[in-house]
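debug: dumping io for the single-chain case to check the tokenizer round-trip. Nothing else runs in this session.
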Amino acid sequence: MSSGKFEFMGAGFSYWWLTYWTGFLTLITIGIFGPWAYCAKQRWIARRTIIDGRPLVFKGTGAGIFGNMLVIFFLTIITLGIYFPWGWCKIQRWKTNNLQFADDSDIQKMKF
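debug: decoded output
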């Protein structure tokens, strides 16, 4: 079985800053900004992850996950938490489906 080289190039301060400002915006919007904050963090992680010399890019949007999170939230409340594992898996599938190798146009847009 072949194996690839995985690298993560993230730095603590940039992640701290991202978490700080997205957390602040989520707080002042009473949680509405949460899906956009989640996507910003996923973009940050993907942008700094390299597999066999190829960078990743996250293409998901806050609007794209907002409806999913809303449905999962209500189903989890209605089922007294029973739906949570299925909802978590749905979010992971959505995240994975929006993660891909960066093409040349994505690489030109990236800022580190």
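debug: round-trip ok. Residues 8-109 form one domain.
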